[in-house]
Design brief:
binds pyridoxal-5'-phosphate, 9 helices, eight-stranded parallel beta sheet, globular
Length: about 230
């Protein structure tokens, strides 16, 4: 299968899952998780019609950016962002998915403010309560939103989650449903710099389940590019 064929297949599956859930397929964005794929392969995915690209590692993102890999679509940062890399990502990534602490949020805001821009972010939620994973606990989200609302150069655009690795995609459904409820509950709060537009969840193995549970941005890597060569 070529990258173009894979993208077409993923889209078909996304559309079917959306329609089955009574949703408009057009409201769901396909992000290509491009880690470990070179600029040429990233360009093929963009040509095939993905909506967004997402990178995990800062160095890799800078290299491919310099090669013009992402031309034509917005670039997101979807990895774990270390504090010492914030300066390299703010302003380059349109949306930072994995913000997982108040310190990181305030650092992002400080860097953005110094550059006269506003950085969009998603709050990462540790929905499985896993000790090895980062993210806010679900019950910490309201407080994190209130704190984020006080930061001058930051705008929260929604939530993201990576549920625990499960044997079968259906097993992720309780986590996705919990995220959906959290997203709905926290969308009711009105702060100036918070707009709960995006619920980012679902990867190659479970994006149709995520769509059934309200995801409007799915992050697909191997389903587009094939298995990664580590
Ligand atoms: C790699 C990655 C993905 C895509 O994973 P696949 O299983 O290859 O689709 C999605 N989200 C994040 C945060 C990732 O790091």
């Amino acid at each position: 299968m070529t990258i173009a064929e894979n993208v077409a297949l993923v889209r078909e599956n996304m559309d079917r899952a959306a329609l089955a859930a009574g949703r408009d397929p057009k409201e769901i964005l396909l992000l290509a998780a491009t880690k470990m794929n070179d600029a040429d392969r990233v360009r093929q995915a963009i040509a095939a019609g993905v909506d967004l690209c997402g990178e995990n590692r800062v160095q890799e993102m800078l290299e491919k950016q310099a090669q013009g890999a992402y031309a034509g679509v917005p670039l997101h940062f979807i990895g774990h962002l270390q504090k010492n890399k914030v300066k390299q990502v703010v302003g380059l990534a349109e949306l930072i998915h994995g913000t997982d602490s108040l310190e990181l949020l305030s650092l992002i805001s400080r860097v953005a403010q110094a550059r006269g821009l506003t950085q969009d972010v998603l709050l990462e939620v540790n929905i499985g309560g896993e000790s090895a994973k980062s993210g806010f606990a679900p019950e910490e989200v309201p407080e994190a939103l209130a704190r984020a609302a006080a930061l001058p150069a930051l705008r929260v655009r929604g939530l993201m989650a990576i549920p625990p690795v499960c044997a079968a995609p259906e097993e992720n459904r309780p986590f996705f449903l919990r995220m959906q409820q959290l997203f709905i509950d926290n969308s009711e709060k009105k702060y100036d710099n918070i707009r709960m537009d995006f619920l980012s969840m679902g990867m190659s193995g479970d994006y149709t389940e995520a769509i059934a549970c309200g995801a409007n941005l799915v992050r697909v890597g191997s389903g587009i590019f094939g298995p990664r060569q580590y």
